[in-house]
Amino acid sequence: MKLGEKIKYLREVEGSLRGMNRAMSQQELTRAIEAETGSKLSQSYLSQIESGARPHLTNTTRQILAKFFKVHPGYLVDDPEGYHPELLSEVRGLEDKLDSWMVSGAERFRRDPELKSALLTVAQHERTRECLLLLEAILETPGLMGRLTEVLRKPGNGIREQGVTSKNGRAGTRETGTKGRRD
């Protein structure tokens, strides 16, 4: 993949992560970079990079873009001749697909900021698959979700108390394993 294609791809991902349901425009990107990093890049410079008119970045520009997009600076170069993305490990390919699926799921729940944030947090984790498998293990272990919730709801631990209405209409917390048992 060429550098310009990578920048376009990163604009797409960033737009999705910001709830735009589209790629960030070059102008939106330059404004966001300035607002969030204090560094300035012009829209015309980004356009030249994306079109291939400027095939190389200055080190300063590479650092600014890497910091903004939260990628390694080494990613922001053309891939070597003969490089094929399918050479990526199968697990990394799975992680990327899973991350994309989680991000699009988060967008579907944009009216529920806590759920959207939780989905994006999992999607942005380095090991999304492991996070989901851990969640499954927590739900499969009788009583564990309830105990974890108690510990995490103690003052200062960050989880807010939320009531869940059960099927019988009573409010409370609910924990269900895959076999439908309640703890």
Automatic annotation (TrEMBL):
Region of interest called Disordered, as start-end residue ranges on this chain: 156-183
Recorded coiled-coil stretches: none
Record InterPro entries: Cro/C1-type_HTH, Lambda_DNA-bd_dom_sf
CDD domains per the UniProt record, alphabetical: HTH_XRE
One example GO MF annotation: DNA binding
Domain HTH cro/C1-type: 41-76
PROSITE patterns: HTH_CROC1
Composition bias type Basic and acidic residues, residue spans: 172-183
Protein name in UniProt: Helix-turn-helix transcriptional regulator
Biological source species: Telmatobacter sp. DSM 110680
